[in-house]
Write a structure and sequence with these properties.
By secondary structure, the chain is of the alpha/beta class. The chain contains eleven helices and nine strands. It binds zinc ion. The site of zinc ion (ZN) has 4 residues, from helix 6 and helix 7.
């Protein structure tokens, strides 16, 4: 278990603890003992494999925690990353744990959920509701910009602001839906990449490599996304800081006015409404 100095972040290699605990968690779930299941999940996510007999997994622990620690240093060396890290609520703890092969098979992605998730009323396995401490399931091969994206989710949860709103989006050919939390995390991730002059991706779903002009054009054609940008600019401190601070070439928060004007060209309205209810309760 390793703390990332100065930030409320703990890197915790617990893969074998997870594998041992999972069948018990499943059994509790199937028996509808949801509170006991949650208690066990919390214990699993905050226990280190270092507690397993004779420190059997010491090499794996050192390797994972060392690599993620280096990755966090890389995030911190980027002004966008440093801002995200610094804004996470210090009353909360962000746990970064490895994602098992089985979990990775289900989704080749990182995931962030509240540590003490709200128990779903419908008996489902949903873990995404709640606030405060969070757990990021992460593998180093997913890279530092993905970690930054998850830290944005963790930040929103840490202030009880995580409220996904579904938006209709399209890429010129196909339509889809996307939620506002993924959109926001993706925007911060893209600004982070741009700040380091690294290749950018069009969108959270349509991840093809694209330049700034192409992505701005895409945003202009997605009115809901512009409304989301506006909502975040009004209600999300991190978006306001992004607009005022980062010199990255790609920064739709800073450039919002011109994106909005391009969207409204040849239309009678002179302002877009913000995506509602982004302000939350
Ligand atoms: Zn995400």
């Amino acid at each position: 278990m390793r703390k990332f100095a100065g930030y409320p972040i703990v890197i915790n290699y617990n893969l074998h603890t997870q594998l041992r605990s999972r069948p018990k968690e499943l059994a509790l779930h199937q028996a509808a003992k949801y509170e006991a299941e949650r208690q066990l999940t919390i214990k699993t996510n905050t226990s280190s494999d270092g507690a397993i007999e004779n420190n059997l997994w010491k090499k794996e622990i050192d390797q994972y925690e060392g690599t993620v620690h280096q990755m966090l240093q890389k995030v911190e060396a980027n002004p966008v990353g440093r801002t995200v890290l610094g804004l996470i609520n210090k009353q909360a703890t962000v746990w970064i744990i490895p994602k098992s092969d089985a979990d990775l098979k289900q989704c080749n992605c990182a995931q962030t959920n509240p540590l003490k998730f709200d128990i779903p009323k419908d008996g489902s396995y949903a873990r995404g509701f709640g606030s405060g401490d969070t757990v990021i399931q992460f593998r180093p091969e997913l890279e530092d910009d993905t970690l930054l994206h998850e830290l944005v989710h963790a930040y929103r949860y840490s202030y009880n602001k995580y409220r996904p709103i579904v938006m209709d989006v399209w890429d010129g050919d196909t339509g889809d839906i996307q939620n506002s939390e993924e959109f926001f995390a993706h925007q911060m991730e893209t600004i982070y990449l741009s700040q380091a002059n690294r290749p950018l991706e069009l969108d959270y779903k349509w991840a093809r490599v694209s330049d700034k002009a192409t992505i701005y054009d895409f945003l202009v054609k997605n009115t809901k996304m512009l409304q989301a940008l506006k909502g975040f600019l009004r209600h999300e401190y991190m978006a306001m800081i992004a607009a005022h601070t980062f010199s990255a070439v790609y920064n739709p928060f800073r450039d919002f006015k011109s994106l909005e004007a391009a969207n409204l060209m040849n239309r009678s309205a002179n302002e877009l409404p913000e995506l509602s209810p982004l302000a939350g309760s």
